[in-house]
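Lab notebook page, bench 4
Experiment: in silico fold of construct C2
Operator: M.H.
Input chain length: 111 residues
Purpose: comparison with the prior construct
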Amino acid sequence: MNRTDSRTDLTVASGGTTSTSYRVAGRYALFSVALPAALTNTALAYEVSHDNATWFALRDNAGAAVAAVAVAASRSFPAPDQVAYYPYFRLVLSGVGNEAAARTISVYGKS
């Protein structure tokens, strides 16, 4: 089986906490997130949406919110399984604090 690799860049605006949205539905089976060298946030949470307007915390099979991920600049980490296995339409990454300048976060997918 051939797999397709893809990279999509998400932007967090200067002074912002939330990235631009990423279309998830039906695209990829595996995800990872790569953070820029200048990132100032220390944790990122996943928020999902079915309509790109109403956002809610990513939840596990038991209904509990998936915990925010501790992060550091210039690091990469896998996305939680729930991102790929559930039929969410859109995804954003939300930080615990405001970024000092605009940041680009790269999302890598493998179908």
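Observations: Residues 10-98 form one domain. The beta strands are 5-12, 22-23, 30-34, 43-49, 56-57, 69-70, 76-78, 90-95, 103-110.
Next step: discuss at group meeting.
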